[in-house]
């Protein structure tokens, strides 16, 4: 999609007037749809649809050996797959840069111990730990990927069921794990402080959140903030432009405020989800 | 990840010997307390002092432009090559492209780095590209690509900033049109302590929480790149857990630190000009 100058001016004026193309204000999000537990083979999953951005996240866990230098911690890895279904640009290796950028930003946002505690994934110090694979599939791109992905990841991790380990038998170098045989005897992951990302986009003189594809094209630069609790766990500048320090501070403030509202809204939605609800296009 | 079998990769599983050493290394908490008590750092710098900087242009004779930067023990070489057509591109792009590659030499860190780019290097390359894209007048070379390679010879912290600053010098040495001099500075935060231009030890001190209390547990690394005359931030990256107020404060500090570097770079470039003039006068 490419816009001509007149269209760009129209978008820009809308942002100035605080009345965007689809009638939203600058700090408003588009409607979202969230479903969890929709992939049967995964330990946890979520699908988030933000207007026409569609993200499917599935969490798989496996047993692994901890890194020798961090023997008390489990592992968490993010993989983003830009399916060519989303846009033809992603065909072949086209989406790779974007995928790597999103995955790196996520791992950077989850790295701090206060954002996500990896020590809880350790089973036996230095020997066994859980490795959590978070696979993110972009089904449709309608702008604002970072926000949608971070929300879906948080919901999928919230939904994840880690089997309980009752005991460990050590016989020489052999380690046997005594995993609970009950299907529903599982632990949940603690995602209370898992970061939520907000993309703050600068258009003209003003900053907006949740840009659509058209708005993303008009922006001169944007900031992705990952907020965990009331602190920033990652801030990243994206886009080609540069920002004035005052704009940067302003967008950080805006991102901080919006991220907290978004997090509250996410929790409110997650609380409403009842187990075993039969919804979604995958079921 | 597939390994390059033409190179010596070493055994599959090796451990750094330091893991087996007697646990005499002080804990992060001790190091932090020590720093706090001393009021200055291990190399007698104050908390807000930048390390001494050494700059030199033209160290790679075959590159169009090159620069070498030393921040005490951090040593980075950056070379810039002639623009060439963007490979594998069908459509004509109005703006030139920048390709950045950030690489740690295998022997640059405590642990041996592999020849293949890992996630950290990919991320740093992307950050470098972000920083330089808004510095270079990309409309001056449409449909062309400039390659920038940064190689870290010795990693003693703040390598990414060093590479960005040096890349700015290398670009001007290569005669690539630019808007402004770009300078970049790293900063580490641990609780209330702010460490400008951290070395590798201080960087790891700042990358995680040292005590388990969640109150006032700010920690993190901030990297900023600024175009000084225009007062524009071309790149901003933060990881860790930092509150909004702290982040505000650091941006101000970093702005000042960046502008302090500008005269050094100007001097280095003037030196280069004088040298070229002299040699052309002789010839």
TrEMBL record, chain A:
Its main location: cytoplasm. GO terms for molecular function: mRNA 3'-UTR AU-rich region binding. Residues 29-163, 194-257 form the Exoribonuclease phosphorolytic domain. It comes from the Eukaryota. Keywords: Cytoplasm, Exosome. The keyword Signal does not apply. One of its GO terms (cellular component) is cytoplasmic exosome (RNase complex). InterPro entries: ExoRNase_PH_dom1 (IPR001247), ExoRNase_PH_dom2 (IPR015847), ExoRNase_PH_dom2_sf (IPR036345), Exosome_comp_Rrp42_subfam (IPR050590), PNPase/RNase_PH_dom_sf (IPR027408), Ribosomal_Su5_D2-typ_SF (IPR020568). GO terms for biological process: exonucleolytic trimming to generate mature 3'-end of 5.8S rRNA from tricistronic rRNA transcript (SSU-rRNA, 5.8S rRNA, LSU-rRNA); nuclear mRNA surveillance; nuclear polyadenylation-dependent rRNA catabolic process; rRNA catabolic process; TRAMP-dependent tRNA surveillance pathway; U1 snRNA 3'-end processing; U4 snRNA 3'-end processing; U5 snRNA 3'-end processing. Pfam families: RNase_PH, RNase_PH_C. It is found in: Cytoplasm; Nucleus, Nucleolus. Belongs to the RNase PH family. This is Ribosomal RNA-processing protein 42. It comes from Phaedon cochleariae (Mustard beetle).
From TrEMBL, chain B:
GO terms for biological process: nuclear mRNA surveillance; poly(A)-dependent snoRNA 3'-end processing; rRNA catabolic process; rRNA processing; U4 snRNA 3'-end processing. Keywords: Cytoplasm, Exosome, Nucleus, RNA-binding, rRNA processing. GO terms for cellular component: cytoplasmic exosome (RNase complex); nuclear exosome (RNase complex); nucleolus. Signal peptide: none annotated. GO terms for molecular function: RNA binding. It is found in: Cytoplasm; Nucleus. Residues 50-177 form the Exoribonuclease phosphorolytic domain. Pfam families: RNase_PH. Belongs to the RNase PH family. This is Exoribonuclease phosphorolytic domain-containing protein. It comes from Phaedon cochleariae (Mustard beetle).
């Amino acid at each position: 999609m490419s816009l001509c100058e007149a269209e760009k001016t129209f978008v820009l004026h809308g942002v100035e007037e605080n009345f965007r193309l689809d009638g939203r204000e600058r700090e408003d999000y588009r409607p979202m749809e969230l479903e969890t537990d929709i992939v049967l083979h995964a330990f946890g999953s979520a699908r988030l649809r933000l207007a026409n951005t569609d993200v499917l996240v599935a969490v798989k866990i496996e047993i692994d050996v901890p890194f020798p230098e961090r023997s008390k911690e489990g592992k968490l890895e993010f993989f983003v797959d830009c399916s060519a279904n989303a846009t033809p640009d992603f065909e072949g290796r086209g989406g790779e840069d974007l995928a790597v950028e999103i995955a790196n930003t996520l791992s950077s946002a989850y790295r701090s111990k206060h954002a996500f505690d990896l020590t809880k994934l350790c089973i036996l110090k230095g020997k066994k730990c859980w490795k959590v694979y978070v696979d993110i599939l972009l089904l449709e791109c309608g702008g604002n990927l970072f926000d949608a992905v971070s929300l879906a990841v948080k919901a999928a991790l919230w939904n994840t069921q880690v089997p309980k380990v009752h005991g460990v038998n050590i016989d020489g170098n052999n380690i046997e794990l005594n995993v609970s045989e009950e299907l529903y005897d599982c632990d949940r992951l603690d995602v209370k402080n898992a970061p939520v990302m907000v993309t703050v986009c600068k258009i003209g003189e003003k900053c907006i959140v949740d840009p659509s594809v058209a708005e993303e094209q008009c922006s001169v630069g944007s900031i992705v903030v990952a907020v965990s609790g009331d602190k920033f766990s990652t801030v990243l500048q994206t886009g080609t432009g540069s920002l004035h320090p005052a704009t940067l501070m302003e967008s950080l403030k805006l991102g901080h405020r919006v991220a907290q509202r978004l997090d509250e809204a996410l929790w409110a939605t997650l609380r409403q989800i009842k187990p075993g609800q039969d919804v979604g296009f995958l079921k | 990840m597939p390994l390059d079998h033409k190179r010596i990769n070493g055994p599959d599983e090796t451990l750094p010997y330091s893991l087996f050493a007697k646990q005499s290394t002080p804990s992060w908490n001790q190091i932090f307390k020590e720093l706090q008590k001393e009021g200055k750092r291990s190399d007698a710098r104050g908390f807000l002092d930048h390390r001494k900087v050494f700059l030199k242009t033209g160290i790679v004779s075959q590159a169009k432009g090159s620069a070498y930067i030393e921040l005490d023990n951090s040593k980075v070489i950056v070379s810039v090559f002639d623009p060439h057509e963007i490979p594998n591109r069908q459509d004509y792009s109005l703006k030139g492209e920048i390709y950045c590659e950030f690489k740690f030499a295998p022997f640059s860190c405590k642990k041996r780095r592999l020849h293949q780019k890992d996630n950290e290097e990919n991320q740093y390359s992307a950050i470098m590209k972000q920083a330089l894209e808004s510095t270079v007048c990309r409309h001056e070379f449409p449909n062309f690509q400039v390659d920038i390679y940064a190689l870290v010879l010795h990693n003693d912290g703040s390598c990414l900033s060093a590479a960005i600053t040096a890349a700015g010098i290398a670009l001007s040495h290569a005669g690539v049109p630019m808007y402004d001099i770009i300078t970049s500075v790293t900063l580490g935060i641990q609780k209330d302590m702010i460490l400008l231009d951290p070395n590798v030890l201080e960087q790891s001190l700042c990358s995680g929480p040292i005590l388990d209390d969640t109150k006032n547990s700010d920690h993190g690394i901030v990297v900023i790149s600024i175009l000084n005359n225009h007062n524009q931030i071309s790149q901003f990256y933060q990881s860790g857990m930092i509150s909004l107020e702290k982040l505000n404060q650091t941006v101000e500090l970093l702005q000042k630190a960046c502008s302090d570097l500008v005269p050094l770079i100007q001097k280095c470039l003037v030196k280069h000009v004088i040298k070229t003039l002299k040699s052309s006068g002789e010839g």
